[in-house]
Predict the structure.
Amino acid sequence: MKRIVDTANHLAGYAAKAARVKVVAAYPITPQTTVVEKIADFVESGQMDAEYIRVESEHSAMVACIAAAATGVRTFTATSAHGLALMHEALHWASGSRLPIVMAVVNRAMGAPWSIWPDMSDSLSQRDTGWIQFYCADNQEVFDTILQAYKLCEDERVFLPAMVCLEGFILSHTYAPAKLPDQATVDDFLPPYKSGWVLDVNKPYSHANLVSPEWYMEFRYMIQEAMENAKRLVPQIDREYGKCFGSEYGGLVEKYRCEGADLVLLTMGTMGSDAKLAVDKLRKEGLNVGSARVRVYRPFPMEEIVKLAAGSRMIATMDRHISFGMEGFLGSEVKASLYGQEDRPLFAGFIAGLGGRDVTAETIEKVAKKSLRMLDMGKVEKETEWVDLRE
Amino acid sequence: MASVPKKRKDLPLTPLSCPTEGSMGKTGSWRIFRPEVNCSKCTRCTICWVFCPDAAITRLEDDSPKIDYDYCKGCGICANECPVKAIVMVREEE
Amino acid sequence: MVTMKELPREEYLLKGHAACAGCGPAVSLRMLFKALGNKVFLVVPACCTTVIQGPYPFTSFAVPLQNVLFESTGAAASGVVAALRQRRIDDVTVVGWAGDGGTADIGIQALSGAAERGTNFIYICYDNEAYGNTGMQRSGLTPYGAWTTTTPSGKKERKKDMPMIMAAHKIPYVATACTAFPLDFVNKVRKAKDILGTKYIHLLAPCPTGWRCDTSKTIEMGRLAVQTGLFVLYEVENGKFKLNPPSDRLVDKSKRKPVKEYFAGQGRFRGLSEQDVAKIEKWVDEDWDQYRRLASECV
């Protein structure tokens, strides 16, 4: 085991190396660039036995990964914002092809106008593409989650691609201490690449030619089944990882001081870390607040949300993005998860941190206190509120 | 040969199709005209075999052509290209 | 030069496929496999060949075939080549087989990228001069004056010179070919297989459905395209330009058949005026001046 101090982007590169990825195809985009630069460095110096295809666009990056995965090797790529958006049709193709590709998404706001700062619009607007989605709160988690993702995706009950999301600049370029496990330990945890199918001259197939209405729906149902399986496997793999490497993250949802909480704050990504600080301060003031960080957004942890709701009187979600014409995705899906329940807690949705606007522990404290006031009144003023919006 | 799925459990993970003759069924049914080879005129040059888009002409051991009428679409290329006009296109009976 | 009787009998494009009657590309697909056998990984974007496979669970192709997104042939091929290399598999030829759209329009970026990276594969553009799969809309490779469903009064722009665009990438091998000259095509494919790097073959593949001619005229139209000098058979090997037979004899204008003979056989050129034909004839002469210069420089 080696202790280093490095950025989340570099750690993503280290993870691809540790996972013995064989083909990387990627295109640079701020704030992802240092992921691919690190990998280029590893490959050229011989530290990583792989090929780095310097493709000419993100669309080509995903396509090359799909083609390489279908030809029988472990693949990796990384992107952000518009790069991810450019790959959109290829994301669908990857999941429909049931290929276990892992991609680091360095979350960044979407234009127009240009913004290089973090928010989750990019990855969340790809939630329907059949990709498993992880959201990380710190650098170590980025490294660990990439390895967990390969294990999950290559499980024969899953065979789906996954994106491991990390906020741009907050994590991507920030140096923090991290532990790199020995290669031998990684090899024990992550066996050699396995895919559900491969193209071979000895057994020729045509992959993905036309499927009529007669069978298309069933192929889609199988993807849904795989997502359900992934939901069960994530906590198992997280625990197994914890046993091998010493760090685990609470499975699908990382809960913090939620027992007996009147209010549970739901967040994703780094807001989850700041929420812990806010909770500690509020608890000191005698307020019954807990926080829960949704670590896996797809498949959506419905059952975990229902459990959290059963134990609390109010849920407030903080979305680092907005679905125009409706609300934040986390807010919507939490409510959808709770719709079928007899007793539902009060709900308030908050939009915060768009385009990299800072969300600190103080901000979250403010959100919590506002929510508690609504809880006292027994009703919510506005279903969705924008935090720190200028007049 | 591909096995046609009957139930969902028969499906592969992702659509993987097997090499099959007649993937579109018996395409010979598309024909309006059928090619007929005059064997005595045929010089066994193999030009018709080379130019058939459908691989419906088999080149036999002695290089003479054998037309598979199950799959011949009746395009007429063989007749048009035959250097000695040994192939004629004959209208199919209704 | 291989002879017809030397071509192997095995078929890897199986009969009963979904191509139109008289399909030029289908003839050349058969010839592709005659050239390479079945140790081929085909990468096929959205194009007529997507449909020619037939529907799941069947395919008419007896080689591994990856259907890929429309604009991505070059990038997908790069992925396949890299994976095969990592798996130490070196006895398989990766072939990108794409139509005009997937090559010259939506797919040009990925192709250019793959060529610039020197991806070790053969890219074949089977050019039927329109977007066939979606019903014959114009492409960047549709010739001047041709009717298509999106240029009903005839295309106003000239055909993009894809082979020369690819030659400008300084890849080791660029060639043109035509369905009507199958042995020339087989030779070129076999030559390409043994060259390391990106190889591009531009194949004129007549399409009775799109060109509006009788299904029996596919090969005849291909032959005329070459005999009129409208389509030229040549190779650019490591930057050296060489005309191939029968195009090599057509430097002499008197040996070129009149372009009107070619246009007369196809309904898509029905709208050509006398001025259009004169314009085209002038362009043919200009292009041939260039070919003559290139051929004499590379003696």
In short: Chain C has one domain: 4-297. The longest helix of chain C spans residues 274-297.
